[in-house]
Amino acid sequence: MDVQEVIRQQVTTNPVVLYMKGTPQFPQCGFSSNASRILKAAGVDKFLAVNMLQNLDIMEGMKTYANWPTIPLLFINGEFIGGSDIMTEMFQSGELQTLLAKKD
C-alpha cells in the first residue's frame, strides 16, 4: 500500500485523526501540544494520533494529501480541518465542538 492510501485509510476509518510531532502524552512541539490539548478540552477522549517524526513517509505524503505546509493537521470524519491556529479559532467560537459532536 502506498503512503497516500495509508493516509486515506487512516482518515476514513477513524473519526478523529491528529497528525502531529510526538504523541499526545509527549508532544514534540508547542503547536502539537496545543492541538492535543484542544481536542481533550473539546471532549475527545479517543483519537488516532500519528507521530509524523516516526514516519517520514507520512510526513512527506501529507504535503500532497492535505496540501498544508505545517504540522499538526486535524481530520474529522475524513475531512481536513486545519492546523493548530485554525483549531484554536474553531474551539474558541464553539465551531470545533459542534463539528466533533457530529463525528461518526
- The level 1 CATH classification is Alpha Beta
Task: Write the CATH architecture name.
Answer: 3-Layer(aba) Sandwich
CATH topology: Glutaredoxin
CATH homology group: Glutaredoxin
Secondary structure category: alpha+beta
Give the CA-CA distance, first to last residue.
25 Å
Q: Return the string of H and E elements.
A: HEHEHEEHH
* Largest β-sheet summary: 4 strands, mixed
List the main descriptive attributes of the protein structure presented here:
104 residues; alpha+beta; Glutaredoxin; 48% helix
Could you characterize what this model shows?
With about 100 residues, this protein is an alpha+beta fold. The protein has one domain (about 5-100): 3-Layer(aba) Sandwich (Glutaredoxin), CATH 3.40.30.10. Helix content is about 50%, strand content about 15%. It is built from five helices and four strands. It has helices at about 5-15, 30-40, 55-65, 85-95, 95-100; strands at about 15-20, 50, 75, 80. The chain has a four-stranded mixed sheet. Strand 1 (about 15-20), helix 2 and strand 2 form a beta-alpha-beta unit. Helix 2 (about 30-40) runs parallel beside helix 4. The longest helix is centred in the middle third of the chain and has 12 residues, at about 30-40. The chain starts with a helix and ends with a helix.
